[in-house]
Design a protein that fits this description.
Strand 16, helix 10 and strand 17 (318-322) form a beta-alpha-beta unit. It is globular, with a radius of gyration of 24 Å. It is built from 19 helices and 31 strands. The longest helix is centred in the N-terminal third of the chain and has 17 residues, at 104-120. Helix 2 crosses helix 9, helix 9 packs across helix 10 (302-314) and helix 12 (350-357) packs across helix 14. It has 641 residues and is an alpha/beta fold. The protein binds 5'-O-[(S)-ethoxy(hydroxy)phosphoryl]adenosine. The site of 5'-O-[(S)-ethoxy(hydroxy)phosphoryl]adenosine (WTA) has 23 residues, from helix 10, strand 20, strand 25 and strand 26.
Length: 641
């Protein structure tokens, strides 16, 4: 493999091994070659990695630091020049058959117009813009318009509440919010503009709100602050030039949940992120130029950033945006779309696979799936039964199934089969991407690296271009969260088994992060919402296995003296959670208990609460360090099975 020759696609295990070894032996040469062949630079970088995990406490590491680019030239301009009429975004609205085809030339024009409009509202390079929208093409336009002028976008998932939106607006200091009057999902309206108004009440930092008109519903507009998307774009330039950025300028902030505190604003930068998203998208799915590619995630999550918008557009393929749900109008919606749009590559989450599998094969087999080649899954561990069903039924036993493990922080896929190359095992994410060196750490706190088969905490040993650089405005928190548990390693927060073949089996989070239907939420966020109510003295929230959602949410509540667990109380507590986090957050089970199991030093033993919630009270283990071991028996007796 010489430096400037495009790399051949990986089609065999030997091919994978060659590339993995090349990236391991000379990461700088490997990644410089990939970025030059895949990305449109204005000034090609000559530098690879600067800094590493041992120096990260002193400041972010960098990739390609001397390169200059604007990532929209990779995602739009070069394709608008070469294939102007090719569909860039294929939109399927909430109602089946409500379809739009937006070509690369049209998408570029839409992006230029909104970019110009943002500029006229005073947005400049480095300023932050919040995007609070549903799955309309305009959400992707908004992201790219920010990138066009070097502004930093932060997409907030449309299922988050006004409180959650306000927190994010404040944390990143956003000056403009882009939203839509209402969202549509499963035949219902989602009041995005109304929630935005509530979030922005009294927020003086926000000088403008741009509102895309999704429906004709009446929409109150705030004089002087709110602007209709169609008005500002009608009067804007269709040729806004791209602002030149440094490779390490921030491209976006995405808030994600951790073990403690409020969600953190994970920061991704231009050059490394676009390289990694483009490379992994092309390699993992074996993307062909004429593919119709469909990832049915939401742009509010990292999967939507990397594998609906940035990766596919940079690769110049048609990317589907899907506004609805897998169940609307019935469980056949995905395969109905596959037939109508002749989809070749389809990417979804285990929770959706389990939900539609429960409705039987008839919803699948009545549609033609012969165009499908690759089926992907992401977001949570996939159980072997769901994997097998995905492979046999939608995939007719002939499609490659790729179980892709990665995180908001990793920017792109890290452990995965390569379609058509890696032999799969149902339930295993298999092997690392070139450039990713996973290691397992003994879970006993000794900090020892494990060799060979075993189960431990998943870390990554060496930097890669797509990884997050910092937490917005809080680099110490970035270092403390990811680089202190295992010094000089990136700690993922996941547990993992490695088998005799070196294959990886992700077992789920080992910290206090919940994964409900592929949505990542912190137990701490639930607990602080529950504690807002006066009746509550203490709250502890844990996850438990759920057959469809992957994890359910179990809340233990200690009431204030004199308070009673009325029938009404769970509803009020649920309402508080919804107000503070959003409709995505739901407690499945409440248990009212007299006290939490605490050590003599006052630390809550969550392990015990987890085991009881999991319905495994006999696996609790040693309780001798508890201040009052008798609480355990009371909690066991009140288990909400
Ligand atoms: C989990 C989503 C098992 C994991 C891209 C990780 C997975 C968290 C898989 C990140 C997978 C993601 N198998 N678990 N294939 N993919 N996860 O940041 O626990 O929303 O740490 O990124 O999802 O969630 P996030």
């Amino acid at each position: 493999m010489t430096e400037n020759q495009p790399q051949a696609p990986i089609t065999s295990m030997d091919g994978w091994r060659d590339q993995w070894m090349a990236a391991r032996q000379n990461p700088d040469a490997f990644w410089l070659a990939r970025t030059r062949e895949l990305i449109q630079w204005r000034t090609e970088p000559t530098q690879g990695l600067h800094g590493d995990f041992s120096t990260i406490k002193d400041g972010p590491l960098t990739w390609f630091a001397d390169g200059k680019l604007n990532i929209t030239e990779s995602c739009l301009d070069r394709h608008a020049a070469a294939t102007p009429d090719k569909t860039a975004i294929l939109w399927e609205g909430d109602e089946p058959g409500d379809v739009q085809h937006i070509s690369f030339a049209q998408l570029l024009e839409k992006v230029c117009r909104l970019a110009d409009a943002l500029g006229k509202l005073g947005i400049q390079k480095g300023d932050r813009v919040i995007i609070y929208m549903g799955m309309v093409p305009e959400a992707a336009v908004a992201m790219l318009a920010c990138a066009r002028i070097g502004a930093i976008h932060s997409v907030v998932f449309g299922g988050f509440s006004a409180e959650a939106l306000r927190d994010r607006v404040r944390d990143c200091g956003a000056e403009v919010v882009i939203t839509q009057n209402v969202g549509r999902r499963g035949g219902r309206n989602i009041p995005l503009k109304a929630v935005t108004d509530e979030a922005l009440e009294g927020e003086r930092g926000v000088k403008g709100v741009i509102v895309f008109k999704r429906t004709d519903d009446e929409t109150p507009m705030v004089e002087g602050r709110d602007h209709w998307w169609h008005d500002v774009c009608a009067n804007a330039s269709p040729n806004t030039p791209a602002t030149e950025c440094d490779a390490e300028d921030a491209l976006f902030i995405l808030y994600t949940s951790g073990s403690t505190g409020k969600p953190k604003g994970v920061v991704h930068t231009c050059g490394g992120y676009i390289t990694y998203a483009t490379y992994t998208h092309k390699t993992v799915f074996g993307i062909q130029p004429d593919d119709v590619y469909a990832c049915v995630a939401d742009v509010g999550w990292i999967t939507g950033h990397s594998y609906i918008v940035y990766g596919p557009l940079s690769n110049g393929v048609t990317t589907l945006m899907f506004e609805s749900t897998p169940m609307y109008p019935d469980a056949g919606r995905y395969w109905d779309m596959v037939q109508r749009h002749k989809i070749n590559v389809f990417y979804t989450a285990p929770t959706a696979i389990r939900a539609i599998a429960a409705h039987g094969d008839d919803f699948v087999t009545k549609y033609d799936r012969s165009t499908l080649r690759v089926l992907g899954t992401v977001g949570e561990p996939i159980n072997p039964e769901a994997w097998q069903w995905y492979h046999d039924s939608p995939g007719e036993g002939r499609c490659a199934v790729v179980d892709t493990w990665w995180q908001t922080e990793t920017g792109g896929i890290c452990i995965t089969p390569i379609a058509g190359a890696t032999p799969t095992k149902p339930g295993s994410a298999t092997l690392p991407m070139p450039g990713i060196n996973p290691v397992l750490m003994q879970a006993d706190g000794s900090g020892k690296v494990m060799w060979g088969p075993g189960e431990g905490h998943l870390c990554i040993e060496y930097p890669w271009p797509g990884q997050a650089r910092t937490v917005w405005n809080d680099h110490p928190r970035f270092v403390a969260t990811y680089f202190q548990t295992y010094p000089n390693y990136y700690f993922t927060g996941d547990g993992c088994k490695r088998d005799d073949d070196g294959y990886h089996w992700i077992t789920g989070r080992v910290d206090d992060v919940l994964n409900v239907s592929g949505h990542r939420m912190g137990t701490a966020e639930f607990e602080s919402a529950l504690l807002i109510r006066d009746e509550v003295a203490e709250a502890a929230v844990v996850g438990y296995p759920h057959p469809i959602k992957g994890q359910g949410v179990y809340a233990y509540i200690v009431l204030q003296p004199g308070q009673e667990a009325t029938d009404e109380l769970p509803k009020l507590l649920q309402q508080e959670v919804r107000t503070n986090i959003g409709v995505v957050a739901k407690v499945d089970k409440f248990q009212f208990i007299p006290g939490l199991p605490k050590t003599r030093s006052g630390k809550v033993m969550r392990r015990i609460l987890r085991k009881i919630a999991e319905g495994q009270p006999d696996a609790i283990g040693d309780t001798s360090t508890l201040a009052d071991p008798s609480v355990v028996e009371t909690i066991k007796a009140g288990y909400q099975g």
